[in-house]
Design a protein that fits this description.
Elements: H1 2-19, E1 25-34, E2 37-49, E3 52-60, E4 69-75, H2 86-91, E5 116-121, E6 127-133, E7 148-152, H3 166-169, E8 175-180, E9 182-183
Antiparallel strand pairs: 1-2, 1-9, 2-3, 3-6, 4-5, 4-7, 7-8
The structure holds zinc ion (ZN).
Zinc ion binds next to loops.
GO biological process, one term: superoxide metabolic process
Domain Superoxide dismutase copper/zinc binding: 40-181
GO molecular function: copper ion binding
């Protein structure tokens, strides 16, 4: 009997690991034009286990007049209008990814859009950050592959503002760069 239970647990755990190993890594090439600046970079995603996604962000060329903190989110769709200018191209990714229909918030809160990554710190025109998120994933539920990371012009108020937009987009302003998330391996 003990042996049967052991076999059952073994088969369940191997099923789980098979299901969750569809994609372990994903990436996005981030690009945008802001006035005369070319903003360029990449985001690398690694699924550490079923609940923890490691996110590494490296973006350069951010104009000195922006920052020091800029809103950064996963938006619902892929880039539907790839040949348009930065604003139209990035806005074609739609609103923040919000499958749980919650208000906008900070990455550290449970009361947030799944796609809410909060703010990225800009230093000398560069964002170099890494963090672990427990909601966005490279598998179901909350799979972000095929969706879009978007960097915004202003600081995200993390849903703490008094106006209606604070609960929708954190008043982080128009997009300045974005990139669609694709499978790496
Ligand atoms: Zn949001």
């Amino acid at each position: 009997m003990k042996y049967l239970i052991f076999l059952l647990i073994l088969s369940l755990s191997s099923n789980l690991s098979t299901n969750y190993q569809l994609s372990k890594k994903a990436f996005a090439i981030v690009e945008g034009e802001y006035e005369k600046s070319h903003i360029r970079g990449h985001v690398i995603f690694k699924q550490l286990n079923i609940f923890n996604l490691h996110v590494m962000v490296h973006i350069t060329g951010i104009p000195s007049k922006l920052g020091p903190r800029l809103g950064f989110h996963v938006h619902k769709n892929g880039i539907l209008n790839p040949l348009a200018n930065t604003t139209v191209r990035c806005e074609s990714a739609g609103p923040h990814y919000n499958p749980l229909n919650r208000p906008h918030g900070n990455i550290s809160s449970w009361k947030r859009h799944v796609g809410d990554y909060g703010n990225m710190v800009v230093h000398n025109g560069t964002i170099k950050a890494q963090f672990v998120d427990r909601l966005t994933r490279l598998h179901r539920p909350f799979n972000i592959i095929g969706r879009t990371v978007v960097l915004h012009e202003r600081e995200d108020d993390l849903g703490l503002g008094a106006d209606k937009n604070s609960k929708i987009n954190g008043n982080s302003g128009p997009p300045i760069a974005c990139g669609m998330i694709g499978v790496w391996s």
